[in-house]
Amino acid sequence: xxxxxxxxxxxxxxxxxxxxxxxxxxxxxxxxxxxxxxxxxxxxxxxxxxxxxxxxxxxxxxxxxxxxxxxxxxxxxxxxxxxxxxxxxxxxxxxxxxxxxxxxxxxxxxxxxxxxxxxxxxxxxxxxxxxxxxxxxxxxxxxxxxxxxxxxxxxxxxxxxxxxxxxxxxxxxxxxxxxxxxxxxxxxxxxxxxxxxxxxxxxxxxxxxxxxxxxxxxxxxxxxxxxxxxxxxxxxxxxxxxxxxxxxxxxxxxxxxxxxxxxxxxxxxxxxxxxxxxxx
Length: 280
What we know:
The chain is of the alpha+beta class. Helices cover 44% and strands 17% of the residues. β5 and β6 (257-269) form a beta hairpin.
């Protein structure tokens, strides 16, 4: 016969055991739910990535179409697409109409930074940082930095034009936010071709010429961007040996987005109308 005190202890132990098992079960459910959410997020991201990649291919196909009436242009017009239920916004940018960072002067970079909203001391640091990174001397500008500044990170100032937009992340005064703004207007991947204002932005014309904001070329480009260019665009020949960027933005459930940017060279090989040179 079990004593009353022992029966009470057994009851407490049983209840405690049940509570522990319940806590373990709840933890397992939480872990399982978390893993399901993680897997679902990864699946959604993979679907958005596939949709964005498809958007890039569709855009390049449209750009090299033999039908002038359906041929895409390189003036930044946004196309709304859908891939397997995922909405896409895709546009093409002319790399030859972007600000060529490996060819601009001290004044040019100053105009660009100001136009992108950089002000005060940050403007001075970014300007001088860029100048010291690209010039061929070791004289430090008032707010700049030469190789000595970068040695702790195992770097040296390039003393030449940057080889990529991402490289500017190493330059004193350049923040991730500033790099994102640079990507829209600037490039370093144009080969030996000259700046072409035909499909560019007014800002690029300003920075690549004389810094004037209301020059005849800028006013003309603004009129074209306002809709006076549609008929001309349809009559343009297929582009060859030109570098372009294709930007595809896929939007998933809850507003999540995935952006694919691909730089391609047109008409390089006979067997292929384009060659993708860089993807991010």
